[in-house]
Amino acid sequence: MKHLNSIAVLAAGIALTACSTVNTTLAERHEVIEMYHVFDIKTKADTATIAKATSDGLSANTNNIQTAMPLQLGKTIPATPGRFSIDDVAAGMNGQNSAMLKMLANQSGGLGLKVANCEGAVWTSKAVRNITGSNNLTLYSCLYKYRDGYNLDMYAVFTKESGGLYQVIREGANAIAGTPEAWVNKTIVDAVRSIERAAGARAVHVEGQPELGPLPAVDQLSAK
Q1: Residue 174 — left, alpha, or beta (φ > 0 → left; ψ -120 to 50 → alpha)?
Q2: Within the chain, how many helices (H) and strands (E) appear?
Q3: Cys-Cys link to 194, which of 15, 57, 62, 164 (CB 3.0-4.6 A)?
Q4: Which residues pair with 150 in a beta bridge?
Q5: Which PROSITE patterns does its entry note (predicted)?
Q6: What is the C-alpha to C-alpha distance for residues 144 and 122, in angstroms, rounded to an integer?
Q7: Are the CB atoms for 123 and 68 separated by under 8 Å?
Q8: Closest Cα to residue 126, out of 145, 113, 111, 142?
Q9: What is the rounded distance in angstroms from the CA atom of residue 121 to the CA atom of residue 144?
């Protein structure tokens, strides 16, 4: 009888372990990642040329892009470039609207509803890429003109989905086309490459987090 009880306990343990493994695999996960990168381009090219090149590079890998070129009335070109900052939209509001925004922020992994503040930039953009069931990217670009050229500050909020019933499909697509992270890197790199072609100058990566990782295999074709 004791032997049968031991077998029953062991079987129950195995069943619970198997159930836990299945739940872990099928659980849907949403991961929110922030990143920023700053590039320096020393060139005498005019602002319109650099802005168009950046926009063209971004549009190659995004669904929608909004741009703005603020007037620079009375402003002189500074010796050093400006720098973007990050604003939390929910933190600056009160009342019911603030509560709703904070609830949405909690659903975004607790990062808040953050946007890039491009104060002083000569050109700005917000590019978006949405791939249902896979990933979403919002990428802000701030172009700062200074005496020797331009700085391009890029800030991204990237949401990646994993797990669930569609994970096998995602893994197959990633193996063929590249991971979502690789495509975020390519979106940034392609914008910089477009500037380099238009300016006839090399861009220098000044700083950024996390490090720019590998690009999708298809990049070897599009980069030529």
Answers
A1: alpha
A2: 6, 8
A3: 57
A4: 41, 145
A5: PROKAR_LIPOPROTEIN
A6: 6
A7: yes
A8: 142
A9: 5
Side chain identity at residue 64, one-letter code: N
Closest residue by Cα to residue 120 from 86, 82, 148: 82
CA–CA separation, 64 and 130 (whole Å) = 9
SS3 state of residue 7:
helix
- Residue carrying the six token digits 């019933």: 165
Task: List per-residue pLDDT tens for the chain, 224 residues long.
Answer: 555 455 444 444 444 444 444 444 567 777 899 999 999 999 999 999 999 999 999 999 999 999 999 999 999 999 999 999 999 887 666 655 555 555 555 554 555 689 999 999 999 999 999 877 667 899 999 999 999 999 999 999 988 876 665 555 556 555 555 688 888 999 999 999 999 999 999 999 999 999 998 899 888 776 65
Distance CA 21, CA 34 (A): 30
Contact of 141 with 153, CB cutoff 8 Å: yes
Domains assigned to the chain: 28-84+119-222 (3.30.530)
Integer angstrom CA distances of residue 222 from 85, 130, 182, 186, 194: 32, 21, 14, 10, 12
